[in-house]
Each structure stands twice: as structure tokens, then as C-alpha cells.
Design a protein that fits this description.
The protein is an alpha/beta fold. It has eight helices and eleven strands. The longest helix is centred in the middle third of the chain and has 25 residues.
Amino acid sequence: MGSSTDQPATPGPFSRVLLKISGEALMGSLAYGIDPEMVDRVAGEIESVHSSGVEVCLVIGGGNIFRGISSAASGMERATGDYMGMLATVMNSLAMQSALERRNIPTRVLSALPIAAVCEPYIRRRAMRHMEKGRVVIFASGTGNPFFTTDTAAALRASEMGCKALLKATKVDGVYDADPMKVPDAKRYERLTYMDVLRRDLKVMDASAISLARENDIPILVFSIHNNGAFADVVRGKGRFTIIAE
């Protein structure tokens, strides 16, 4: 929405943001798993925003390692598959923590499933304190419950942390009415309301995540993680993105 006049200029309207990254984004050019080069590149994007004084927290999916719902389709109990997916998000979160700490950015992983040997348990007030101290906080294990996606976890944590925006990093530069990778003339939206997304069944985030963001008046900005500097641009209200707001 770089052409829009209602987006504030630098330093931007967002003093605290949550970045939602899919697990697939961390695969880079690999067929599955974690591509260290891609993780480091995303860490660089986060570093540029963090160094500008913006408080940053993250939710990372686990689809590059394990996807519960597809395993449920092959006969595994859905709840079991979802818990395995939550453990995959912990692996991704630890990889991102390592990449950020190599850049001397203090980072904490807080997990909704207690795994004391590798990360802290999620406690809202502790997470708030970490952010106030200038640490990047990564929320792992989704909501800690099966049947909820990491998109819903992102909307929940953004609400709990009082974030000014939820930024969803995807493979494309906004929300389209069809997959632009498959449909060349898919229509791109500059701005949508929460109800537009729900009514049109746009597959940007699941309905519970959209509803939660709507209830707490948290704008969702969808942008491409593959464009260098895009995260910093969007936080400043510049660059190409689709905004979902009231």
C-alpha cells in the first residue's frame, strides 16, 4: 500500500508488532526441513526492525517439519498430529533464536507446551517483560491446544502482548482472490476488512484468527518475506502489502 496516503510515514505507526512466519518459509529451496541460509536471511529482516526500536515478537509455523492435519488425513488421530506439529514449531523457534543471537539480538523462546530443558514456559507477564527489555520473543507450540492453527496462535499472542499490528509473511506480496502462483490474472487487494476476508473465504488466515484480530482491533498486514527489506518497509507503512482492518 505504498501509494496510500493514510499510512503514517517513518517511523511508522507500529511500536510493537508480531511477525507470523510459516514453517514452509524456512525451507528456502529445500524440499523439507530448515534451510540455514533462509533462517539467517529472515533473522536479518528482524534485526533491521528490532534495531530501529520496534518491539518484535514472532510465531513460526511447523509445516516444514510436520503438518498435523495432513497426517490426520492418512489415519493418525488429529490431536496427536497437532501436538507433533507443535513440537516442530519448537525446533523452528530454536533455529531462529540461534540465528538472531548470532547477530547479538537477545532472544527468548516461550513455549505453550512446557519443555524446560530448551525454552521457557509461556507466561504472559514474563513475555511482556522480555519485550519491554528489548528482547525478541518467539512464541512456540501454537496455543498449546490441538485443533488450533499457528495463525490463531499469532492472533492470540498479538492480542495478549498488545501488539499494534500482526504482520503475516507469505510467499506473495499481499492477498489475492486466487493463488497467483497458479492463476496469473488473480486479483490483488490493497485493503480489505475482516468481514471481507470471512465473507469471501480468502485463504490468508483461518476464520478464528481473523475473528480474534477483529475483536481486538489488530490490523493484519500481509507481505512477501522474499522481498529484501520488506519487513522493515511494512512496519513503516511503506512497500507492498495488503492491510486487513476494520
